[in-house]
From TrEMBL:
PANTHER family: EXOPOLYPHOSPHATASE. Pfam families: Ppx-GppA. Residues 26-214 form the Ppx/GppA phosphatase N-terminal domain. This is Ppx/GppA phosphatase N-terminal domain-containing protein.
């Protein structure tokens, strides 16, 4: 005789990040009050590569993005709109024809897409870290994306400072390394990065932090960036590493 199990299944949620270099999708559910990741999808679309000098997104870049969204849509069949959050970041913020991309995306994936500000992107990154990092204390979170870099200091789900700078691996590669690497180009890129971060470094130095996280590479808080070179623990892709190693 079959046994009827009326226990409700945990609701699934999906978050989709339309980044400048890659599109990411994470699917999770809440089990006993805790978030449980049950699936991830990532595809490189190189959206920023299709942005020309007039900030117009090329047809080829749009097609790559739409093809990826079509793949994501297959996995999201059956999800209610309230369970799916899709956000566009730096490249879609800059693209003058972003509205055209969104209109075409509506026909591919039946969920609204919101283009968020850099500061909102930073806030969401920080909240994600708070949900996944067990270590307590004030955190410095740095996320280096394809088109922008987000920096946050916060603690206990309360971001104290959120900042976004127009500097990323794709945008800097295009600006400073279109061909072969050189010492001169590297120095120019470093000087540009320092200029963008100087004021912010002073602000963050005053606040201080005990835990630094900068995926996907380990980060030792340097004196020039506001740390003392010794403080806290360092995290690499979610795993703690000692600062001195």
């Amino acid at each position: 005789m079959p046994i009827n199990d009326n226990t409700p299944r945990p609701q699934e949620f999906a978050a989709v990040d339309l980044g400048s270099n890659s599109f990411h999708m994470v699917i999770a559910r809440v089990v006993d009050g805790a978030m449980q990741i049950i699936g991830r999808l990532k595809q490189r679309v190189h959206l920023a590569d299709g942005l020309d000098e007039n900030s117009v997104l090329s047809e080829e870049a749009m097609t790559r993005g739409l093809n990826c969204l079509s793949l994501f849509a297959e996995r999201l069949q059956g999800f209610s709109p309230s369970s799916v959050c899709i956000v566009g970041t730096h490249t879609l913020r800059q693209a003058t024809n972003a509205a055209e991309f969104l209109k075409r995306a509506e026909k591919v994936i039946p969920y609204p897409i919101e283009i968020i500000s850099g500061n909102e992107e930073a806030r969401l990154i920080f909240m994600g870290v708070e949900h996944t990092q067990p270590e307590r204390g004030r955190k410095l979170v740095i996320d280096i994306g394809g088109g922008s870099t987000e920096l946050v200091i916060g603690e206990d789900f309360e971001p104290r400072s959120v900042e976004s700078r127009r500097m990323g691996c794709v945008s800097f590669s295009q600006a400073y390394f279109p061909a072969a690497l050189s010492i001169k180009k590297t120095s120019s890129a470093r000087a540009a990065a320092v200029q963008k971060l100087e004021t912010l470094a002073r602000q963050f130095r005053i606040q201080g932090w005990t835990v630094a996280l900068a995926p996907p590479a380990p980060l030792k808080p340097p004196r020039s960036a506001g740390g003392d070179g010794r403080e806290g623990r360092i995290y690499y892709a979610g795993a703690p590493r000692d600062a001195g190693k």
